[in-house]
Amino acid sequence: MKRFLILQLRPETDASDAEYASILDKTGLTPEQTHRIRLDCEDLPDGLAVTDYAGVIVGGGPGCVSDDPATKSPLDAKIEAAIMGLMPQVTAQDHPFMGCCYGLGILAAHLGGDVSKRQFGEPVGPSDCRLTEDGSRDPLTADLQPQFEAFVGHKEAVQTLPEGCVHLVASDPCPFQMIRWGQNVYATQFHPEADAKDFEQRINIYKDHGYFPPEDAQSLIDICHAADVTQPGEILRRFAQRYG
């Protein structure tokens, strides 16, 4: 069985480790079934071929693909370049891919879509999402609850659906919560791996990163723990099951 390539972007070790553990938990994969690379401290191997892996999962992170390149830190620029460098392989091969949050911006930007902070950013916390008509038929989302909560928190968003993409999940604050390109390339604006404990940790880690007023941290944590977030993890489980 081929392993899954897990690419992580978070420079905070505790957040990165917790995210990886959550990906394993939601997918049902073991560490031996994955190849984990932390792009904040590791380079991609020379000559990496995505087809050597069952699929690629990209985690979230504090970077924004739409930021002015002149303002990006060297680390953010390095991480973005590494992932963008893999996207031509992913789309040319229609290779199984799941981009989580930042991964949606990467996919849309690669496809020439409009990614910006103009509108559709969402504060940290649960968001009410719903399946589109196409979402009700897609293998990863069919038979999910028609409406469900998912954890979000993002400054930028996809403004219009990139050409050739299928719209699977929507919400009122942010229309493009999940899309598919081709038959096997997926991305979500929400965090399919995250539970309330993950978001409590991230709120504490990123409270000074401009996502929300720092004094709102505890109230946001309480809101996250009161939410009923179960369906997004099923999407990750189905991705691993379908392509594993």
Describe the structure.
The protein is an alpha/beta fold and 244 residues long. The chain has one domain: Class I glutamine amidotransferase (GATase) domain (Rossmann fold). The chain has six helices and eleven strands. The chain has helices at 13-27, 74-93, 102-110, 196-205, 217-226, 231-243; strands at 4-8, 34-38, 55-58, 97-100, 115-116, 122-131, 147-154, 157-158, 165-171, 178-181, 185-188. α2 links the parallel β3 and β4 (97-100). The longest helix is centred in the middle third of the chain and has 20 residues, at 74-93. The radius of gyration is 16 Å and the shape is globular. The model has no long low-confidence stretch (mean pLDDT 94).
What is this structure's SSE topology?
Elements: E1 4-8, H1 13-27, E2 34-38, E3 55-58, H2 74-93, E4 97-100, H3 102-110, E5 115-116, E6 122-131, E7 147-154, E8 157-158, E9 165-171, E10 178-181, E11 185-188, H4 196-205, H5 217-226, H6 231-243
Parallel strand pairs: 1-2, 1-3, 3-4, 4-11
Antiparallel strand pairs: 5-8, 6-7, 6-9, 9-10, 10-11
